[in-house]
Amino acid sequence: MSETAKVLLDGQECELPVITGTENEKAIDISKLRDKTGYVTLDTGYKNTGATTSAITFLDGEQGILRYRGYPIEQLAEKSNFLEVSYLLLYGELPSASQLTDFTKRITRHTLVHEDVKKFFDGWPSSAHPMGQLCSLICSLSSFYPESLNPNRSQEEVDLSIIRILAKMPTLVSWIYKKSIGHPLIYPNNNLDYVSNFLFMTYGMRTEDFHVDPVIVEAMDKLLILHADHEQNCSTSTVRLVGSSQANPYASVAAGVAALWGPLHGGANQKVIEMLDQIQNDGGNTAKWIEKAKDKNDPFRLMGFGHRVYKNFDPRAKIIKEACDNVLNKLGIHDPILDIAKQLEEVALQDPYFVEKKLYPNVDFYSGIIYRAIGFPTEMFTVLFALGRLPGWLAQWKEMREAGQPIGRPRQIYTGEVKRDYTNIATR
Ligand code: CMC
Predict the structure, then answer these.
(1) Pocket of ligand 1 (CB under 6 A)
(2) Is 116 designated active site?
(3) May I ask the CATH architecture of the domain 71-410?
(4) Does the predicted TM-score (pTM) go above 0.85?
(5) Among 37, 47, 146, 399, whose CB has the most other CB atoms within 10 angstroms?
(6) CB atoms < 10 A from the CB of 252, how many?
(7) What is the pLDDT of residues 200-219, one digit of tens each?
């Protein structure tokens, strides 16, 4: 007999089904609770609420486990590449050689963006934040593909939109960077692989002169894989929620970019470097800043530390920390903020405040040091997170659509005034 949960409300017993996931995660299915009892559940910040079932990513925060479609993140980061991982997330299985060739060809064919997109850059002030630009650019792509507005499109048409977004994203991101430094925009070179092409458009001028260090390509590829999906985080839930109203994929992904921008989510990678710079400029006394992070009356938090679901090491942070050492060594860079980051980590991991609250370095703690070594300005870091997260957003949007999930519409518990009659106070 299948498991159930019993809720006792107003003396009445209500039986609710229990759902068990493939990794034995348990949930009480409350979808009929209000119909049966008149009650809803309240969970501000969704700390204890499963918003969907999903077959894409498995995360066990207590054990520090992360798997895409069953494959451990450590194995994918070491042996796979970003496009193969994107295919895996989107279609559920690793591609055969011919499937990967076909997927790569399709993406390569769509790397150009409409020439009129360049005009958007003329309207923004030079100080415009890259995330604001990215959000607008992605959403505006829907205007160049009006057929994408139709929610009842065929699977092939939907798939073409997914390919287009994946293909154009590196072009848009590199153009945002080029504009920020006042350089001419570079068109894609489709003889290069996805990551090299992105680096070419970002740092290259002419194909003949372009040389990219394989160490940088490998590091970038690894970072993109590690960011590719993370189940129902703030931005991914936003993509699914916006998509559930049958909004087109460009608009849904743009909403994800907006959600990612915040410093508590993807925006933390920029804030980590700003914090490390600040600590260095202040003399590098890490103990002082750890004390500030613990002080409830001080708004300072240790950026890149703590996570809603990881109560153990974030497995991505472990890989990135190692990659960070490798990249800096191979490029012959000594960045003093890496020493500060390591000191902070060492002190925090022994401090009872961080130990008791199970606060560990997260994905954003070391990634920025690699981006900085590659040559990206700090304001670009969250855009690079978005570049990596894109296949995850698209896979989750696709899964939600294919499952025919209903529009997302939470309830609330009203705490405002009860009914009162209008009197004209302003003119009395
Ligand atoms: N520094 C100091 N104290 C912290 C920190 C931190 N970085 N993170 C959490 N705490 C404390 C917090 O004050 C609270 O203490 P208390 O129980 O005494 O009130 C306790 O730990 C639990 O924190 P919370 O804010 O209630 O936990 P949350 O799950 O709502 O927030 C978080 C998670 C990631 C927003 C938070 O840890 C944080 O603000 N970290 C810094 C920002 C950051 O690095 N964000 C990137 C997250 S990883 C990338 C991604 O996928 O988004």
Answers:
(1) 230, 233, 264-266, 268, 293, 301-308, 357, 359, 362-364
(2) no
(3) Orthogonal Bundle (1.10)
(4) yes
(5) 399
(6) 28
(7) 999 986 666 778 889 999 99
